[in-house]
Amino acid sequence: MALIEWEDSYNLGIEHLDNQHKGLVKQINILHAAMKIGKGKESLDEILKALINYTATHFKSEEELFFQYNFPDSKKHIAEHEKFVKEVLKFKEDFDKGRLMVSIDVLHFLKGWLINHILGSDMGYKSFLLSKGVR
Ligand code: FEO
């Protein structure tokens, strides 16, 4: 069973952002599956890199829309993105140095952060961007 099952309540109604969120869920599920079957460090490293790159692309997409439409809460939202990126990069650094394993705790952190962020902060821009005609 996948660590995260996509639910309709996660949808924003903005297609490319919803697709990116689904992509992030997929990346975390891939990491979870790889950890469960005991994949080696090299494979986990590749998956982590893909997750980090995908996250950066997604945050950039949201932030570009914030600037384009002058979203009033962008500062707080971007700060959340930056904090998450910092934590994941720190995790990756520790993983690279052999100080940390990909564990179920790490996966639950990623899952918790993503779902809480989508349902909390991302839902906070939903009606604003929809009102600007973004789909
Ligand atoms: Fe969908 Fe603010 O990340």
Describe this structure in words.
The model has no long low-confidence stretch (mean pLDDT 97). The protein has helices at 15-36, 41-69, 74-96, 104-131. By secondary structure, it is mainly alpha-helical. It has four helices and no strands. Helices cover 76% and strands 0% of the residues. Helix 2 runs antiparallel to helix 3. The protein has a single domain, classed as Up-down Bundle (Four Helix Bundle (Hemerythrin (Met), subunit A)). It is globular. The structure holds MU-OXO-diiron (FEO). MU-OXO-diiron binds next to helix 2, helix 3 and helix 4. MU-OXO-diiron (FEO) is lined by residues 21, 58-59, 62, 77, 81, 117-118, 121-122.
Which terms would index this structure?
about 140 residues, mainly alpha, Four Helix Bundle (Hemerythrin (Met), subunit A), binds MU-OXO-diiron
Chain-wise SSE layout:
Layout: H1 15-36, H2 41-69, H3 74-96, H4 104-131
Residues 21, 58-59, 62, 77, 81, 117-118, 121-122 line the site of MU-OXO-diiron.
